[in-house]
Specification:
The chain is of the alpha/beta class and 240 residues long. It is built from seven helices and seven strands, in the order βαβαβαβαβαβααβ. The chain has one domain: NAD(P)-binding Rossmann-like Domain (Rossmann fold, 3-Layer(aba) Sandwich), CATH 3.40.50.720. α1 packs across α7. Bound molecules: NADP nicotinamide-adenine-dinucleotide phosphate.
Length: 240
């Protein structure tokens, strides 16, 4: 399958993996709907992409995913057919559960789990209009395996939830003109951790270049319609 002329929405495309993925798709001729929570950051990204001669033909979406009512209002303005939905936006949280504020737990569940469910439900009619709809949910290896002696319980809990949603949704669309896939990366060199107040180095030994994830996701999206890379776990195996 080709990405050329495909209409794609990447949530959380103002930074990290989502931004790199949006750029890679634009370079392959896809029509990308960008999404971010901050209007100025979205506008500045559009400007940067235009300076790189990448064409943004689609109106970007600005919506803070913590707000479920806003999700309903904003994402339902997307009309017409949609070929690919990437539920990528996410926030990190680590530390002992007893020290975690209710607000942080609510943010985790809203941004990392509720938002992908709501956005998917809103956009299913658009995906049905595509000749072949595709959904990729960006979960995490932390929502697949629980590491010993180190805690990000709430993050793991919601990412496990995202895995469950992804696999159940894939079953729901078994043998239909639609495929649903889950991507489960290990640590990537992005600002995800810094934004949550965790002061990791940009290049910790357990992190890898997010461009590896871009290539993995593009591989998933470009397989023949007959097959489904239902899940892909990408981990850092060389800690050096
Ligand atoms: N980095 C890792 O090690 C790692 C490992 C496994 C899985 N993941 C997952 O990969 C995905 C991408 O993460 P990343 O590493 O690329 O992080 P990132 O660089 O921080 O990018 C996250 C994106 O999500 C957006 N976002 C965060 N909170 C939002 C909200 N309330 N409303 C709307 N948008 C929001 C961010 O917007 P701003 O630009 O405004 O911040 C940004 O565009 C996430 O789902 C993350 O959980 C990351």
């Amino acid at each position: 399958m080709e990405l050329k002329n495909k209409r794609v929405l990447v949530t959380g495309s103002t930074d990290g993996l989502g931004k790199l993925l949006a750029i890679a798709m634009l370079k392959r001729g896809a029509n990308v709907i960008l999404h971010g929570r901050n209007e100025e950051k979205v506008a500045s990204l559009v400007q940067i992409l235009k300076e790189q001669n990448l064409s943004i033909s689609e109106k970007p979406i600005v919506c803070d995913l913590i707000n479920s009512q806003a999700i309903q209002e904003v994402f339902s303005t997307i009309s017409g057919s949609l070929d690919i939905l990437i539920n990528n936006a996410g926030v990190w949280l680590e530390g002992d559960t007893i020290d975690t504020t209710p607000e942080k737990i609510i943010e985790q569940t809203h941004v990392n789990l509720l938002a992908p469910m709501l956005i998917t439900r809103i956009l299913l009619p658009n995906l049905f209009k595509s000749e072949f709809g595709q959904i990729v949910n960006i979960a995490s290896i932390a929502g697949v395996e629980i590491p010993a002696g180190y805690f990000h319980t709430i993050y793991s809990g919601v990412k496990f939830g995202l895995q469950g949603f992804t696999e159940a949704l894939a079953k729901e669309f078994d043998n239909r003109n639609m495929r649903v896939m889950g991507y489960y990366p290990g640590g990537m060199e992005t600002d995800l951790f810094k934004k949550s107040g965790i002061d990791y180095e940009k290049h910790e030994l357990w992190m890898f270049d997010p461009q590896e994830s871009v290539e993995a996701i593009i591989f998933m999206l470009t397989r023949n319609k007959k097959v489904n890379v239902k899940r892909l776990d990408l981990i850092n195996q060389l800690q050096e």
